[in-house]
Amino acid sequence: MKKSALQIARAAYQPKLPKALKGSLKIQEGAPTQSVADQDAIAKLFPNTYGMPVLSFIESNEVKNYPAINAGVILSGGQAPGGHNVIAGLFDGLKALNKDSRLYGFLLGPGGLVDHKYIELTQDIIDEYRNTGGFDIIGSGRTKLETEDQFDKGLQIIKELNIKALVIIGGDDSNTNACVLAEYYKKNNTGVQVIGCPKTIDGDLKNEMIETSFGFDTACKVYSEVIGNIQRDCNSAKKYWHFIKLMGRSASHIALECALQTQPNICIISEEVEAKNMSLDDVVTYIAKIVADRAAQGNNFGTVLIPEGLIEFIPAMKRLIAELNDFLAHNSNEFAMIKKSEQRNYIINHLSSENSAIYASLPEGVARQLSLDRDPHGNVQVSLIETEKLLSEMVSKKLAEWKAEGKYNGKFAAQHHFFGYEGRCAAPSNFDADYCYSLGYTAAMLIGEGKTGYMSSVRNTTKPADQWIAGGVPVTMMMNMERRHGEMKPVIQKALVKLDGAPFKHFVAQREQWAKETCYVYPGPIQYFGPTEVCDQPTETLKLEQA
Fold it and tell me: Which of 136, 291, 472, 514 has the fewest CB atoms below 10 angstroms from its CB?
């Protein structure tokens, strides 16, 4: 297969590691932990893995001999840059423990474990995928490991291959499932360890011990490059408003980070909209006012960044969607039998009066998108809702009203973009290449030390890599109870943008100037080769959070 010059050059890149992982190490234990909320309920559900301490690896002079270990690895959920380096780090770490250790990759996600589809990952295969984007080494999938029947089927192949540990690389739901699996295998004395790795470009899997999820850095750099290109075009033609929707269903971390990197005229932060109890009309008016103010200066152009999950953060819309999710979860069969032309009225007639009125007021297209097939968690697929078009149409309508009243005399023409898949399989930045390799290597060390129910953790990430702190955090520590498919279930709590946090405060301090003036920044493509201050920088979010 032909390779690009970049692929050839990146294959030679050697990811950096925390100092403690470069030789003999020992574990330093913190205090016992508890879940972020619903402590009694979580402790009751996870009696064998609840309350474990946070772990840190520190350098040691003691030389240990580890037995050969067979491990399995699963890529779960959507792709994120750096997944291949997690697997490479895991492989190298297992071989460092004992050269006879072996690694098996389960194919196409958790379904590969249940269906016994796997390959052995050898040195030749691993070397082919170092520092590359994508999950194509073994593929990914969205099968959810939830039932004891699945756990037992997985255990059959685990025993057959003499696997002692399973590493699940995924987001909050995948790691929740990993924790459930760890609890089940420990309760039944199977001797199988389960370790998670924090993956999601959305950035919403983080806490004091997981500073960032892998893939976020690269995805934001890819999106920011393209936003910069659009802003250069915008400032050249001076005739379009570009409405740009970005990944981020449950949190606005990507939108905020891209705004910090590119300085658009407008960036909507879903968490702020919810905190201020803003209506859809409030959001539209906010955008329209900035468009009108720029038009008054002769600037009929600009950029607007929108998180894909915005609709769910508008409180009235959130109440509607919550009721809609519950209603469709319990009436899915009946709803499927109704003609498409009659589905809208069926929903209107079965919702509460407040939500029925809101649903009836929505444009036909948006109403239809809200009632489409649910995602695997039973929720509205917000990425299918064309929020960028909805907002630009409503802004256009409001500006037309203002023009009729003599309050506005500009021109308004919109272009629409949605950046999602473009960032998910990019070749990882230096940061993600190093971070992911360290996460995988750390997972191997957790396996070597006999741990289960932990997520691999690498901290102190704004410092040079040899100063990073590697260790493990109990997955139960991140959990709370949430409603899923109409039932309360344990899940890892999503990390939202903190409105009192340094990144958001920095954004707020700048946004008025960005709205009035054309302050665009053009970050350019990810830089791999050159000065450290250009190539090895973490995200603006991390720098501000860790300052």
Answer: 136
Contacts 24+ apart (CB under 8 A), 27-31: 27/55, 27/56, 27/57, 27/58, 27/449, 27/471, 28/55, 28/56, 28/57, 28/58, 28/471, 29/53, 29/54, 29/55, 30/54, 30/55, 30/56
- The per-residue b/e assignment along 166-190, b for 16 or more CB within 10 angstroms, e otherwise, is bbbbbbbbbbbbbbbbbbbbbeeee
Strand 102-106, strand 118-120: pairing: antiparallel
543 CB-near residues (< 8 Å, 6+ apart): 462, 537
Coil/strand/helix, residue 439: helix
Which residues pair with residue 169 across a beta bridge? Answer: 75, 197
Which residues are 303's β-sheet partners? 242
Sign of CA dihedral 253, 211, 141, 124: positive
The contacts of residue 244 (CB under 8 Å, 6+ apart) are: 227, 230, 264, 303, 304, 305, 306, 388, 417, 418, 419
In the annotation, is 202 catalytic?
yes
| Whether pLDDT at 368 is above 90 | no
214 DSSP assignment = B
Report the C-alpha gap between 443 and 195 in whole angstroms. Answer: 7
Q: Please report the pLDDT score of residue 1 as a whole number.
A: 73
CB atoms within 10 A of CB 249: 19
**Coil, helix or strand at residue 197:** strand
Q: Whole-prediction pTM value?
A: 0.93
Annotated binding site for Mg(2+): 172
For the chain, list the domains and their CATH numbers. 38-53+70-215+428-484 (3.40.50.450), 221-424+500-546 (3.40.50.460)
How far apart CA 95 and CA 424 sit, in angstroms, is: 29
Q: C-alpha distances in angstroms, 349 versus 343, 353, 425, 543?
A: 10, 9, 43, 50
Position 2 scores a pLDDT of 85
CB-based burial label for 298 (10 Å; 0-12, 13-18, 19+)? exposed
Assigned token pair, 23: 């030789």
What is the per-residue DSSP string for 325-358? HHHHHHSHHHHHHS-HHHHHHHHHHHS-HHHHHH
Concatenate the DSSP letters of all residues of 128-196 into one string: HHTT--SSTTT--B-----SHHHHHHHHHHHHHTT--EEEEEE-HHHHHHHHHHHHHHHHTT---EEEE
Q: Please identify which of the residues 173, 202, 204, 432 carries the catalytic annotation.
A: 202
Alpha-carbon span 545 to 547, nearest angstrom: 6
Side-chain half-sphere CA neighbours of 469 within 13 A:
13
What is the Cα gyration radius of the chain?
24
3-state secondary structure of 367: helix
Per-residue pLDDT of 282-291, as tens digits, reads 999 999 999 9
pLDDT band at 383 (very low <50, low <70, confident <90, very high): low
